[in-house]
Every structure is written in C-alpha cells, then in structure tokens.
Amino acid sequence: MEKVNLAEKLAQFDDHWSPKVAGQLDDYEIKLVKLQGDFVWHKHDDADEMFMVVDGSMDIAFRHKTITLNTGEFLVVPKGVEHKPYAEHACSAMLFERKGVINTGDAEEGDLTRRQLERI
Amino acid sequence: MEKVNLAEKLAQFDDHWSPKVAGQLDDYEIKLVKLQGDFVWHKHDDADEMFMVVDGSMDIAFRHKTITLNTGEFLVVPKGVEHKPYAEHACSAMLFERKGVINTGDAEEGDLTRRQLERI
C-alpha cells in the first residue's frame, strides 16, 4: 500500500495517448495519460469513462457538442456515447474506468490502440 | 452530461466529514469531502476506497503506520484494512468508491455516519 504522487508519476513518461496504470480499486483502474493532438472517434458500449485534467486542458468532442476540460475539472463519458478526445497543447489527465477497457473502444484497432498497459 | 469543476463544487459546502456525490461512473461514485480533525477507526470489508487530496494535506492512520497525503496525491485503502483519516488543518479530498459504501464502514453508527449523501 503506497501513495501515488500524480506529478511524480507523470514525470516518468512522455509518450502521448498511452495510458499507464497508477492504481487499482476493486475491478477499476486509475490511469495517467498524456495527450496531444487528435484521438479517434470511439465509444465503450459497456463502460463509463472518467477524464480528469491534472495539468493543461483538453477537449472531448461529441457528435453534437464539444466540452473543454481545464485543470481540476472532470467529465464522465457515459457508456455508449461516441467521443473523440483532442488536445491542442500537451495535457495530462487521470482516467478512471473498469479494468480491461480498451482505449480505442469500438474503433478499428490501430496505432493508438493499447491492450497491455504499463504500470507505473 | 456536464463537466465538474472541483474548486467550484468544493466552494458550495463547508461541513466536515460529510461526503457529497459529484459524479457517478458505472456503480461507483466520485465524492468530494472536507476533513478536519479526527475520524473514526473503521474498515470496509467489501470495498477498496480511494482518497485523493485536492487541497491541503491529510493523514490516514493504519494500525502499524500512518501515511500523509498532500495535494495531488492519492492512496487506495484496500478492502478489509482498518484505517482512520485525520486532518490537522482543513483539507479537501476526492473519494472514489462503490455506490452504497457507508463512510464509517464497520464502526458503530454515530454522529459521523452518513447514509444519504447530497448530490452537488
């Protein structure tokens, strides 16, 4: 049982769109990720997904609107809702979602898909 | 679907040890709480519990050690582990735990027990 310092963990990596597992709670994982540029449109049919911005700002595009998250703000994207994360500048975020949820959801598997996540 | 600004939500209340529900993800809840002084020793037999400090610092006492959490740090207290949160000065934290988990766990129900949580 060890505490996690978000800034220290985030200083350990620089790659974008590649979530790292920083903690586990029941069957859920607390992940840290750095974002910049465009992700892909996708949805998670069976899982809600929380995005909380730790440093910077990011957009989450939906089919009919876009929500901008700044540092200290979070959004829960409900299961089944198509979304596309985007960050103009480098942004660090904490994710909370059920273990096993694949980052690209129902989108065709591609370069951004991460199935095995590093633990930090 | 609305984003949550932690600082704005925390500005809406001042009472201590009374978690408010700020978001829901599957069967889990994201709660915000202000702490000061001593809580009670307790454990949650069936649920892990995450404490993340948003502003200030807090201690979580265990039977054989104490962990201090500062702003930007989190700890997952595993199910079944006795703990006692404590904060010398006012501290704001985000909690993540399964819906229905009672804040005082297996401790005798008392003044600090909260069964119905306000949504903010």
Summary tags:
homodimer; 120 residues; Jelly Rolls
Q: What best-fitting shape of chain A do the alpha-carbon axes yield? A: globular
What class do helices, strands and sheet pairing of chain A give? mainly beta
Instruction: Give the terminus-to-terminus CA distance of chain A.
Output: 14 Å
Q: Which chain pair has the greatest contact?
A: A-B, 34 and 34 residues
Tally of contiguous helical segments of chain A: 1
Per DSSP, what share of the residues of chain A sits in E-state strands of 2 or more residues? over 45%
Low-confidence stretches of chain A: none
CATH fold name of chain A: Jelly Rolls
Element string of chain A (H = helix, E = strand): EHEEEEEEE
Please give the number of β-strands of chain A: 8
Sketch the major β-sheet of chain A: 7 strands, antiparallel
Whole-number tally of structural domains of chain A: 1
CATH superfamily grouping of chain A: Jelly Rolls
Kindly provide the radius of gyration of chain A, computed on alpha-carbon positions and rounded to a whole number of angstroms: 13 Å
